[in-house]
Amino acid sequence: MSISILGAGAFGTALAISLAQNGPVTLWARDVSAMLETRESPRLPGLKIPDAVHIVSDLDVALEADTILLSIPMQRLSGLMDRIDTPLADKTLVACCKGVDLRTGLGPTGILQAAKPDASVAILTGPSFAADIARGLPTALTLACAVDAVGKRVQHQLSTPSLRLYRSTDVVGAELGGALKNVMAIACGAAIGAGLGDSARAALMTRGFAEMTRFAAAQGARPETMAGLSGLGDLALTCTSDLSRNYQLGLALGRKEIFDPSVTVEGAATAQAMDRIAIDTGLSLPICHAVAALTQGRVTVDDVMAQLLSRPLKEE
């Protein structure tokens, strides 16, 4: 069974480097000239791309694989799918991005299923940094697929000695855990950046996890999924590491610093999408609401913290 990866950013390239241990992998990007010349990605400096990784700019070549991993920023995923007019009925599409599409309110698997309803769809998510995967450091992820037989096949296909995949059929839970933890990471970064301390971060992580679980349950997710790698595990990593881009954005907001607009930060768009969903559904998502307002510049960190700390006292 052949594998291709669409998207040669840090995560897509890291997956290609890791999976090349198992055999040939095709890695697609629009511009591959620099990578072909150096066998390196500018996103992963110093890490060579193995010869087993076939780097291409021809999308049709990449779509010939049986299993296609889509490591595309969430807000660009639907645009890429609109470009693909090739039938993919016999393919398995694995989303490797986290978030909620601003235009449709769908998660990555929803985008894939809407575009290619005859394809098998899964999501790969969980606590990971691209550099760790590329360097062969131990990493555990969740692979969620509604059809367990497909999930089992892909689980074995994408596992390596250092990349361990745990299987789930709860696609909704895995998807929402990966999306919502980015919002909470921005909030935690803002708290630390504003000098509010580790206790404030712990409180935000805890209440953020409760908010994630409450929303996911309303969408039909299983509680054990949110307590696993794709929920609590990813939340812990993203809210505590300076390597997290969402956390870095929060730090910059808390410090009142300028953040590089060219850096992809999925949590900002996800917070805005979730704020709209909360209004439509009547669900209480105070941290999502606060982060949406903060990242759009409608409030300051001081305003946000005052709002969150003034919420009614109640049982936990």
From TrEMBL:
NADPH binds at residues 11, 30, 98, 130, 245, 263, 266. The keyword Oxidoreductase applies. NAD(+) binds at residues 7-12, 130, 245. InterPro entries: 6-PGluconate_DH-like_C_sf, 6PGD_dom2, G3P_DH_NAD-dep, G3P_DH_NAD-dep_C, G3P_DH_NAD-dep_N, NAD(P)-bd_dom_sf. Residues 170-305 form the Glycerol-3-phosphate dehydrogenase NAD-dependent C-terminal domain. Substrate binds at residues 98, 245-246. It is an enzyme of class 1 (oxidoreductase). Residues 3-146 form the Glycerol-3-phosphate dehydrogenase NAD-dependent N-terminal domain. Its EC number is 1.1.1.94. Keywords: Cytoplasm, Lipid biosynthesis, Lipid metabolism, NAD, NADP, Nucleotide-binding, Oxidoreductase, Phospholipid biosynthesis, Phospholipid metabolism. Sn-glycerol 3-phosphate binds at residues 98, 126, 128, 181, 234, 244-246. One of its GO terms (cellular component) is cytosol. It catalyses: sn-glycerol 3-phosphate + NADP(+) = dihydroxyacetone phosphate + NADPH + H(+); sn-glycerol 3-phosphate + NAD(+) = dihydroxyacetone phosphate + NADH + H(+). Pathway: Membrane lipid metabolism; glycerophospholipid metabolism. Its main location: cytoplasm. It is found in: Cytoplasm. Coiled coil: none annotated. One of its GO terms (biological process) is glycerophospholipid metabolic process. GO terms for molecular function: glycerol-3-phosphate dehydrogenase (NAD+) activity; glycerol-3-phosphate dehydrogenase (NADP+) activity; NAD binding. Pfam families: NAD_Gly3P_dh_C, NAD_Gly3P_dh_N. It comes from the Bacteria. The keyword DNA damage does not apply. The active site is at 181 (proton acceptor). HAMAP family: NAD_Glyc3P_dehydrog. Belongs to the NAD-dependent glycerol-3-phosphate dehydrogenase family. This is Glycerol-3-phosphate dehydrogenase [NAD(P)+]. It comes from Pelagimonas varians. The gene is gpsA.
